[in-house]
Amino acid sequence: MKIIEYKPTPQKKRAIRKIFKQSPEMFSKEDLEVIEKRLSEKSELDYKKYVAMDNNKILGFISYAQPWDTKTIWFLSWFAVDKYHQGKGIGTSLLKYIENQIRRSSSPRLYIETVSHDDKLTKNTRKFYKNQGYKRVGLIPHYYNNNVAKLIYYKDLSQ
Ligand SMILES: CC(C)(COP(=O)(O)OP(=O)(O)OC[C@H]1O[C@@H](n2cnc3c(N)ncnc32)[C@H](O)[C@@H]1OP(=O)(O)O)[C@@H](O)C(=O)NCCC(=O)NCCS
Q1: 71-76: long-range contacts (C-beta < 8 A, 24 or more apart)?
Q2: What are the pLDDT digits (tens) for 46-76?
Q3: Among 25, 76, 99, 128, which residue is least crowded by beta carbons within 10 Å?
Q4: 127 CB less than 6 Å from ligand 1?
């Protein structure tokens, strides 16, 4: 498995779109529209985008950027691993890859937003972030709907 920078082609876009569609618990229809744009266009933020590839097949995607209003922290944007290849270390490799880049930057901090759903997939995602050393630093109640909050995780990468 290798990690390379994402460069848009119709084939790559299709493969990545398919991966995000596999997790409707995590990615809504509206999310998929934004992902679609992100895969095609340059946007106002300078998103760094990478794919995990094995035998010419895309098995995962990760991206991150610096918010427009700060120079001291980065946020994880879209991140997913092919459903049939989860739990094999690909997500860890992708996250470690961008953490190493961020560690070398002048603002070695990363935060992640995720959902507070109670299903198995999203619980596993929270477990994943916790195991990777992320601390839950925030919760915005009723963010996605009356029962689902936005959770914010944070890791200081200078330590
Ligand atoms: C979260 C995700 C990116 C992790 O990638 P991954 O390749 O499955 O993770 P790894 O194999 O590197 O790490 C496995 C660990 O992650 C956790 N994990 C999270 N989701 C998992 C899944 N669907 N299957 C298996 N393990 C999962 C397990 O706790 C496992 O730890 P363990 O080995 O102690 O059991 C991936 O599961 C995924 O795409 N999930 C759906 C989309 C998503 O939640 N994206 C993040 C949005 S904020």
Answers
A1: 71/106, 71/107, 72/107, 72/109, 73/107, 73/109, 73/110, 73/111, 74/102, 74/105, 74/107, 74/109, 74/110, 74/111, 75/110, 75/111, 75/112, 75/113, 76/110, 76/111, 76/112, 76/113
A2: 999 999 999 999 999 999 999 999 999 999 9
A3: 25
A4: yes
How far apart are alpha carbons 120 and 80 in whole angstroms?
A: 15
Q: Which amino acid residue places its CA nearest to atom 8 of ligand 1?
A: 86
Q: Which CATH superfamily is domain 2-156 in?
A: Gcn5-related N-acetyltransferase (GNAT) (3.40.630.30)
User: From the CA of 69, how far away is ligand 1's center (Å)?
Assistant: 30
Alpha-carbon distances of 127 from 74, 122, 130, 153, rounded to whole Å: 21, 9, 5, 11
**Domain boundaries in the chain?**
2-156
User: How far is Cα 92 from Cα 10, in angstroms, rounded to an integer?
Assistant: 27
pLDDT tens across 14-24, in order? 999 999 999 99
